[in-house]
Amino acid sequence: MTGRLLAxxxxxxxxxxxxxxxxxxxxxxxxxxxxxxxxxFQRLVNGHEPTHILPAxxxxxxxxxxxxxxxxxxxxxxMPEVLREALPEFYMQLTRLGMxxxxxxxxxxxxxxxxxxxxxxxxxxxxxVVASTDKDLHCLIAEGARIWDHFKSEWxxxxxVEKKWGVTPGMLPDxxxxxxxxxxxxxxxxxxxxKTAAKLLRTYGTLDAIMAGAGILKDKVGESxxxxxxxxxxxxxxxxxxxxxxxxxxxxMLAWDHR
Length: 259
Prior knowledge:
Layout lengths: L2 E7 H10 L7 H22 L3 E5 L7 H5 L12 H17 L11 H14 L3 E6 L14 E4 L4 E3 L1 H8 L6 H8 L14 H11 L2 H7 L6 H8 L1 H11 L11 H4 L5
Parallel strand pairs: 1-2, 1-3, 3-4
Antiparallel strand pairs: 4-5
């Protein structure tokens, strides 16, 4: 029997639920958000009927990306303290339900999901569903995963990615490196937006091929590419999912027994 892995980008759900309320930060707001988030997790499990569940969370603090680039996520609002304080109890609730929440120092939840999903698919264990709206995770579609947008109740597949960004899922890290990513303060290249980045990738295929051809581009974009080469390759490292994280759990520990 083939399995189905459900990887849940935990804070993607928790923070969006919390921020959906216009109320000022408070213990009560955090408590209500956690209740809604818990229901959302239950709905995901009931809707997707997985054999295995990976609830991945950011550990918090700095990561390998901050070490690489000090400006990483510099513009992002920190998590409200009341919400951070409510997380341990939320993890306990998930554990009591039979899940195994995972947060690993120095890496992000995206890296944990990237590692586990890639391993699951490489080992031929069945299908993989990733519940997240995070664009960085959409590159996993190229590996055979499907992305589920819990908030819009819609599937994101190869066609969806091509329609939205103009490139295939496998090209997404190159696209994000070129255009930058404001939410994570990843600079990208000046004068390159999503349309230009997609056009370059459709023409050349990869970042390296674009840079090999940058010498013949006489316009502003060519100039920016030549001048900002180092920052472009740094951006490319920052958007890449780390897929060799030591998770320290077995498939058995992630198994869901439909309790």
